[in-house]
Write a structure and sequence with these properties.
Layout (H helix, E strand, L loop, with lengths): L1 E8 L4 E2 L5 E3 L2 H21 L9 E5 L5 E6 H4 L24 H36 L1
Antiparallel strand pairs: 1-2, 1-3, 1-4, 4-5
Helix pairs in contact: 1-3
Length: 136
């Protein structure tokens, strides 16, 4: 068994996997990383956003060494993670199956959006206070 981490790289940041998971081998981690990518693409589509084709999943050792990178473009069919074995290619690359890693990423995504909304509200309050001081 290997303890590996599935980090997400989106358009603006690297979202580290804080816990990692035990995998029998790197290939099992690749399959999980591909599923995480599919799950995130589905979530983006469900929220009315375009496919995040620039995103990636990095598979890393506990010491931070990147063992592999899965590009969302490969999962979406712009390349192919399954090019070596067409028989193992899923019929629908966007099949949705929640995994522990995808749940952690989704929770982190929700937390970030909540924090941004809260910051926006604080900024609006500060703007109103600043305007009232200027006019007062």
């Amino acid at each position: 068994m290997q303890h590996l981490y599935l980090h997400i790289i989106n358009d603006t940041e690297r979202i580290p996997d804080p816990d990692g998971e035990e995998f029998p081998d790197l290939e099992a981690a690749r399959k999980e990383g591909a599923q995480v990518a599919r799950d995130l693409m589905v979530q983006e589509l469900l929220h009315g956003r375009p496919l995040p084709l620039g995103w990636r999943v990095q598979i890393a050792d506990p010491d931070g060494t990147i063992r592999d990178t899965i590009k969302f473009t490969d999962i979406a069919g712009v390349g192919s993670v399954w090019a070596d074995n067409a028989a193992s290619r899923p019929a629908n690359n966007l099949h949705f199956r929640r995994t522990p890693a995808s749940r952690r990423v989704e929770i982190r995504h929700i937390e970030i959006h909540g924090q941004l909304a809260e910051l926006w509200q604080h900024l609006q309050t500060l703007t109103r206070l600043s305007e009232s001081i200027k006019t007062g």
